[in-house]
C-alpha cells in the first residue's frame, strides 16, 4: 500500500511557526484560507485534496483565544469531511489548560469542555507543548503527545551559565522544576507565592531553598503579566542570588508585560515561538527560541508511526 502523504496546514494563529516547521520537514504548507464575515462568523476552506492523507493543523490558542479555538474546530471538521485518513491538531499553546479543575463553586472545567469539542468534530490526535496541568491528557479519549520546551531551552541556559539554581515560582510547578534542575545539573528552590484574586498579580513571601551566591533561573510554563517572574526575581536577589534569568515555554506577555520585564532585575527572559500574536513589541531582554525543529520531529514520528517519547526531553 502506498505511503500516506503528509499535509501540514497553518491556522490563522500560527503561520510563521507552520512555515518554519515545514522548512524542517522539507515540504510546503498546505493551501487553505480562513476569513471572517462582517457579522463575525469564521469561514475556513482547504484548497487541496486531503482524501486518505495525514493532515496536521497547526493552531496555537493565543489571543483572540476563542476565535482561534473555533477556527481550529472548523479546520478539523473540514479535513474529516474531506475524508482525511488522520487529523492531528497541533496546539503549541493550549490556553484553556489553565481551566483544569473545579476549584470554585459553579465554574466550568474549561479544558475538559475544549477536549470534548475537539473530539466531537473528529480529531484523531493532539500534539501540544507544556500543558499547564499534565493530567489534561486524560481529558481526551484520543492520543495526546505532550512535548516539553525544556528539551530545547536547556541548551540555551546551560551553554552560558554555571553554578545554577533552578527556581519554581510556586509550589504547583515544583515537580517540573525538579526535572529542569536534573537536566541542568542544578539544585532547586521554590518561591512561596500567593494570589489574592483574579487580578493576575502575584505576591512572593519567601524562597524555600538555598540561593545565596547562585545564578538563579526561574522556570515556568507561561507568563502573562510578568509579575510572578518579577516578584520572584526581586525576592531571589534579596535572598542573596547574584543574578536572575528566566525561561518560560509560552510568552503570552499581555500589554505592559514586556516593558515591565525590561525594567525589572531579570537579566534575560527566554521564551519560545509557540505564540505569534504580540500585544506590544518585545524588548531587548526577551529572546525567542524556536521549537519548530522539535515539532517537526514529532510530526514526522506521528506520520511514520514511530515513537514520539524520544522527544520528551525529560
Tell me the span between the first and last alpha carbons. Answer: 36 Å
Radius of gyration: 20 Å
The geometry reads as: globular
> Secondary-structure element order, as H and E?
EHEEEHEHEEHEHEEEHEHEEH
The fraction of residues assigned to DSSP E strands is 25-35%
Proportion of helical residues: 25-40%
What is the number of helical segments per DSSP (H or I, 4+ residues)? 8
Please provide the count of β strands.
14
- The average pLDDT score comes to 92
Short description:
With 314 residues, this protein is α/β, with parallel strands linked by helices. The chain has eight helices and 14 strands. Strands 10-9-8-11-12-13-14 form a seven-stranded mixed beta sheet, sandwiched between helices. Strands 1-4-5-6-7 form a five-stranded parallel beta sheet, with helices on both faces.
Your description of this structure?
The chain is an alpha/beta fold and 314 residues long. The protein has helices at 15-25, 65-81, 110-120, 150-158, 174-184, 227-238, 257-262, 292-304; strands at 6-10, 32-36, 42-46, 54-58, 86-91, 125-129, 144-147, 164-168, 187-195, 202-208, 215-223, 243-251, 269-272, 286-289. Strands 10-9-8-11-12-13-14 form a 7-stranded mixed β-sheet, sandwiched between helices. Strand 9 (187-195) and strand 10 (202-208) form a beta hairpin. The chain is globular, with a radius of gyration of 20 Å. The mean pLDDT is 92.
Amino acid at each position: 500500500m502506498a505511503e500516506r502523504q503528509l499535509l501540514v496546514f497553518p491556522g490563522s494563529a500560527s503561520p510563521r511557526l507552520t512555515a518554519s516547521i515545514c522548512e524542517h520537514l522539507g515540504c510546503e504548507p498546505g493551501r487553505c484560507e480562513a476569513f471572517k464575515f462582517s457579522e463575525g462568523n469564521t469561514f475556513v476552506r482547504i484548497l487541496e485534496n486531503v482524501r486518505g492523507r495525514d493532515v496536521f493543523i497547526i493552531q496555537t490558542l493565543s489571543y483572540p483565544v476563542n476565535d482561534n479555538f473555533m477556527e481550529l474546530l472548523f479546520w478539523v471538521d473540514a479535513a474529516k469531511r474531506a475524508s482525511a485518513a488522520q487529523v492531528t491538531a497541533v496546539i503549541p499553546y493550549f490556553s484553556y489548560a489553565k481551566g483544569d479543575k473545579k476549584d470554585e463553586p459553579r465554574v466550568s472545567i474549561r479544558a475538559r469542555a475544549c477536549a470534548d469539542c475537539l473530539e466531537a468534530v473528529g480529531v484523531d490526535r493532539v500534539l501540544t507543548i507544556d500543558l499547564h496541568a499534565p493530567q489534561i491528557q486524560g481529558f481526551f479519549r484520543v492520543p495526546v503527545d505532550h512535548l516539553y520546551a525544556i528539551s530545547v531551552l536547556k541548551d540555551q541556559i546551560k551553554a552560558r551559565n554555571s553554578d545554577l539554581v533552578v527556581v519554581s515560582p510556586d509550589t504547583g510547578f515544583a515537580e517540573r522544576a525538579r526535572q529542569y534542575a536534573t537536566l541542568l545539573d542544578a539544585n532547586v528552590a521554590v518561591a512561596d507565592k500567593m494570589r489574592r484574586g483574579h487580578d493576575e498579580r502575584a505576591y512572593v513571601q519567601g524562597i524555600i531553598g538555598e540561593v545565596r551566591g547562585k545564578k538563579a533561573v526561574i522556570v515556568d510554563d507561561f507568563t502573562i503579566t510578568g509579575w510572578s517572574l518579577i516578584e520572584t526575581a526581586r525576592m531571589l536577589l534579596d535572598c542573596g542570588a547574584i543574578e536572575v534569568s528566566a525561561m518560560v515555554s509560552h510568552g503570552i506577555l499581555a500589554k505592559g508585560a514586556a516593558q515591565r520585564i525590561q525594567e525589572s532585575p531579570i537579566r534575560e527572559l527566554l521564551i519560545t515561538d509557540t505564540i505569534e500574536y504580540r500585544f506590544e513589541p518585545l524588548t531587548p531582554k526577551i529572546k525567542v527560541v524556536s521549537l519548530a525543529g522539535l515539532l517537526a520531529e514529532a510530526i514526522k514520528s506521528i506520520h511514520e508511526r514511530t515513537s514520539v517519547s524520544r522527544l520528551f526531553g525529560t
